[in-house]
Specification:
Number of helices of chain B: 6
Strand content of chain A: 15-25%
Shape of chain A: elongated
Order of helices and strands of chain B: EEEHEEHEHHHEHEEE
Oligomer: heterodimer
Strand order of the largest sheet of chain B: 6-7-8-3-9-10
Mean pLDDT of chain A: 86
Distance between the termini of chain A: 25 Å
Largest sheet of chain B: 6 strands, mixed
Number of strands of chain A: 20
Number of strands of chain B: 10
CATH architecture of chain B: 3-Layer(aba) Sandwich
Distance between the termini of chain B: 31 Å
Low-confidence stretches of chain B: none
Helix content of chain B: 25-40%
Helix content of chain A: 40-55%
Number of domains of chain A: 4
Structural class of chain A: alpha+beta
CATH class of chain B: Alpha Beta
CATH superfamily of chain B: P-loop containing nucleotide triphosphate hydrolases
Mean pLDDT of chain B: 90
């Protein structure tokens, strides 16, 4: 015979439909989002990994000062290396957008045309999908290149540019002002020879294990250097444009996974505590059933089944959403940041395990822990309603304050486990809310600080020294080294008595580090930095004598003379100019890059642009807020139904009763918010630092002052929503409840 | 089934606060008989009933029902013992609030491999018309009938009733006692009733009076009358 107690389940569901629906919806959205995130991430990762073979992605590329000689080609061929011409020209179009224009490719780094078609005529062009989206360009639009109108015929993803890094050392990719483009051979020729880069992609016939790739890259570099003048050399494993997106997909997975489990645990405890309250109310019934022969496990199963059914239903619907709607949402997050090829959804067993099996287990274990302990009590204790392990001999003495204050304190003391859980729920919700609210102003603040602390309005980086007559110009030297994590660090050699870099802390033979570098790696004065050259086995040790306020990049500043000594350069060597005025008398061919505010803030703008989904955190946090307050306040009201009824009989109005019971919850909500804010700021900072360490560069941690009051207002609004729902419940409690036998 | 108690001792508390509630209770209740445990508050009658019911353990002594001896049983075995032998009726009816009358009785049927036919039982309990009602739609008497139905549907060897009429008015109390008597007669189970209502002893086959944890008298009732004729 089927256990007749199970017939209670649909009635229990119907009776508490609000509670279970809220739990179901919240779990569904949480699981759905995470499932979508994992599925999209898994599919994206798969598509990315497959793309290496599918699109025949290069093993590396190099750029020469002039076309590769036959000797070079033969030397590489002897090493089983095939090279393909991937010449490009860079052109600036309107709004300072830069296009890196290639000829159509057939053999290597092939292209996924996502809409439209590849160019067929000389006045046609295909552009990167993300760049087009960010610049509202679509098929049929025309862009002007060198005074010539070119029509966009295709939107594409270039397999060697899944992340639009213009330079490999850039802090962030830049899909707003930089794009790769494809034109026909004729179209390429019609662009003229200006700024032509003799770029070659290579494919290595030899298979090199991962730990030997650097060695192999060095071998190849040596061969190339022997037969040509290298201006750029980048093996695939160091190429951010190829590798960054692939590494980034799934990088947030651990964080999302933990977020999922924390939310599930909070919900699991909320469900368990409300069920525990039901068990307390039904203690005598349970005692009778146990006395009649019901086993503990039978009752445990009975009380645990609804939270499990709710969670299982949420997992099923959540996974369906995960594979459909939410996958698209999550995929759009990646598509907003990267130029991935078309996504094909693949079944993800891992996602199923993470979003279904583990959450269900978690809810089961939590409920088992909370209810199992309670149901282990002997039947007699249930019959006597003695469900606490230790009998309370004395009540807490409250001899201060008004009656209402003492009454509210009693309610808080009576419901301490529920209110502790409420605190945890509010804490988790606030951390999410902080993510939702604080990141965008943090990036804005960073952009502003970068502008405020810029060294000069213009930084000209030269390919070779070139004298200027501009009096605002100040010479400096710059080179790139890398630290132990292979992150690029700019080394500046600053002229003595510089008017642009105030380096009073700079001691002879020592260096200053930018504050961003200090923050990211926790560098202290006196520390010795070990930095090495990228393609050569040469390491430098630099002693830090202070910090220079320059959050825009990870940099080291030293005296120009020290720079010359360190890098064995002539005393008059320099490689750039600082200037607050635009320098117009330098031959453009000598200019490698000009860094202005636009370049300095490009990373911040890009980051902000790819952060659209972060706002969702705020919405999610608000929902968690309302849910926690609603469920736990409901439990407090239900637990006190009789007392509320008695208060009604003796003449208390609904408002007064609400002010007693709901204000108690309100007090806990406000206290939780106030207590948790410093704690969550600490946690948020820790998580933020962990996240930022994964990126190149650094964004200074900053929380806009308005974030805190907004969080408190959000908390209060959530409370008011839950308050109004609870008031309806209190109004519905009849006076007759006080004189009715519970069982 | 015959119920035998041998030298049952039970104390609560420890040290100076130790109170001996049962001081060596020994008695036998014959199979199919009605036994009334009488005594004032604090005499130990409910504790004794709970020990028989296996929801309280004796410090020493033996409880046996038929061939089953309840001694050193773990919780699992005690559950099985209760499941197999006992039906419980309490003063507060302790019905499952979200189940109908019929379903509440089925909760008892679930515990047995050979339960009584439920429709017949509903008729016998006078609850047929109320079978689809929820407990909060019933009077106290109807609720107690339901709880008796839940206890007896699994054909327990012994029906334990702890103040079954304590919360009921005079007429309803008599109806409930009459029902217990009818069940005893038709089903043949042993019934142990704990009460402080002296009049109830008149319907018993055996009356055991307790005071201060000891049996003051243990007599067979030669002048047994029907529960319908009880007066107090």
């Amino acid at each position: 015979m089927k256990n007749p107690l199970y017939r209670r389940l649909p009635r229990e569901l119907k009776k508490n439909i609000g509670k279970y629906l809220a739990l179901f919806l919240f779990l569904t959205v949480t699981i759905g989002f995470c499932s979508g995130f994992f599925v999209a991430g898994g599919s994206m990762k798969q598509a990315y990994e497959d793309s290496f073979e599918k699109y025949n992605i290069e093993d590396g590329h190099f750029t020469l000062y002039s076309e590769a000689t036959d000797e070079l080609k033969d030397a590489l061929k002897a090493e089983d290396i095939t090279i393909s011409e991937l010449f490009y020209k860079e052109r600036t179009i309107s709004n300072e957008r830069v296009l890196r224009i290639y000829k159509l490719r057939n053999d290597v780094n092939k292209v996924d045309v996502m809409s439209g078609r590849l160019p067929e005529k000389s006045d046609e062009i295909a552009l990167d999908r993300l760049f087009c989206k960010n610049n509202s360009l679509s098929i049929g639009d025309s862009i002007n290149i060198d005074g010539r109108d070119v029509k966009i015929t295709g939107i594409a993803a270039l397999s060697d540019y899944s992340a639009l890094y213009r330079n490999n050392s850039d802090f962030m990719l830049d899909s707003i002002s930089f794009s790769v483009a494809l034109v026909t051979d004729d179209g390429f020729d019609e662009l003229g020879d200006l700024d032509l880069h003799y770029n070659y992609a290579w494919l290595d016939g030899k298979t090199t294990p991962e730990n030997k790739q650097a060695e192999r890259a060095e071998e190849i570099q040596k061969i190339i250097s022997k037969y040509g003048i290298l201006t750029d050399y980048l093996p695939q494993f160091l190429n951010q444009a190829i590798k960054f997106a692939g590494n980034d997909v799934g990088r947030d997975r651990i964080m999302v996974q933990w977020l999922l489990y924390i939310i599930i645990a909070v919900i699991g405890f909320a469900a368990a505590i409300t069920t525990r309250s039901t068990v307390e109310q039904e203690a005598a019934v349970i005692g009778t059933l146990r006395a009649t022969g019901f086993k503990r496990t039978e009752l445990l199963r009975h009380y645990i089944v609804i939270p499990l059914i709710t969670a299982a239903a949420a997992a099923i619907v959540g996974n369906i959403l995960g594979y459909t709607v939410m996958k698209e949402v999550a995929a759009s997050m990646y598509y907003n940041s990267y130029s991935f090829p078309t996504l094909v959804t693949v079944w993800n067993a891992d996602a199923f395990l993470l979003t279904t099996v583990i959450p269900l287990l978690l809810i089961f274990v939590i409920n088992l822990f909370v209810l199992g302990r309670m149901l282990r009590l002997p039947p007699l204790q249930f019959l006597r309603h003695e469900l606490k392990k230790k009998k309370k001999n004395r009540s807490v003495k409250l001899s201060f304050g008004r009656f209402f204050t003492r009454f509210r304190l009693r309610i808080i003391i009576q419901n301490i486990p529920a209110y502790i859980l409420l605190f945890i729920g509010i804490f988790v919700a606030n951390v999410m809310l902080m993510f939702g609210l604080a990141l965008s102003p943090m990036v804005d603040n960073f952009a502003q600080t970068v502008i405020d602390t810029k060294i000069s309005d213009y930084q000209y980086i030269l390919k070779a020294p070139y004298e200027t007559k501009n009096e605002a110009a100040e010479k400096f030297a710059i080179t790139e080294l890398q630290n132990e994590r292979e992150e690029s660090i700019s080394i500046y050699g600053i002229s003595e008595n510089s008017k642009y870099v105030k380096k009073s802390d700079l001691k002879n033979g020592k260096v200053l580090v930018s504050d961003s570098y200090r923050d990211k790696y926790g560098i202290k004065t006196g520390d010795k930095l070990k930095l090495s050259e990228k393609y050569r086995d040469k390491t430098y040790e630099l002693e830090v004598s202070g910090v220079y306020s320059y959050p825009g990049a990870l940099c080291v500043f030293m005296d120009l003379s020290d720079y010359h000594t360190l890098f064995e350069q002539d005393d008059d060597f320099y490689s750039g100019y600082f200037s607050n005025e635009e320098i117009t008398d330098i031959d453009e061919r000598y200019i490698a890059t000009v860094i202005t505010v636009t370049e300095l803030t490009a990373g911040a703008n890009q980051l902000k642009d790819s952060m659209g989904m972060v706002a969702l955190f705020g919405v999610f946090a608000m929902a968690l807020y309302v849910l926690m307050i609603f469920i736990l306040a409901k439990m407090v009201t239900e637990k006190n139904t009789k007392s509320i009824s008695v208060l009604k009989i003796i003449g208390y109005s609904n408002r007064e009763i609400g002010s007693l019971y709901n204000y108690s919850t309100g007090i806990v909500v406000i206290l939780s918010m106030l207590i948790s804010i410093p704690l969550q700021t600490f946690i948020f900072e820790k998580i933020y630092y962990m996240m930022m360490r994964e990126f190149n560069g650094w964004i200074t941690f900053y929380i806009a002052p308005w974030v805190y009051p907004v969080m408190i207002v959000c908390g209060c609004i959530s409370f008011l929503i839950a308050y109004s729902l609870e008031m309806r419940r209190i109004k519905k409690i009849p006076k007759s409840e006080a004189i009715k036998g519970i069982e | 089934m015959k119920l035998v108690l041998e030298d049952i001792h039970k104390s609560f508390g420890s040290g100076d606060n130790r109170t001996e509630v049962l001081k060596g209770i020994s008695c036998t209740v014959e199979s199919g008989s009605i036994c009334v445990l009488l005594g004032p508050s604090g005499s130990g009658k409910s504790t004794l009933l709970n020990i028989i019911g296996g929801i309280e353990t004796a410090d020493s002594g033996i409880v046996s029902i038929g061939d089953d001896i309840m001694k050193d049983m773990n919780e699992k075995k005690l559950s099985l013992y209760r499941r197999r032998h006992l039906g419980y009726v309490f003063q507060s009816y302790n019905l499952v609030p979200d189940l109908t009358v019929k379903e509440n009785i089925e909760v008892g049927a679930y515990l047995s491999d050979d339960p009584m036919p439920i429709d017949e039982l509903l008729n016998m309990l006078g609850l047929w018309e109320h079978r689809n009602k929820m407990p909060n739609q019933l009077s106290g008497g109807q609720q107690q009938r339901t709880s008796i139905g839940r206890a007896i549907i699994k054909r327990p060897d012994i029906l334990l009733c702890d103040e079954p009429t304590g919360a009921l008015d005079y007429n309803t109390s008599k109806e409930i006692l009459k029902l217990i008597e009818d069940i005893n007669r038709t089903c043949g189970n042993t019934v142990v009733i704990v009460t402080h209502n002296d009049a109830v002893k008149n319907m018993a086959d055996r009356v055991i009076k307790l005071r201060d944890g000891q049996i003051r008298s243990d007599k067979l009732n030669e002048t047994k009358i029907s529960a319908a004729d009880l007066e107090w």
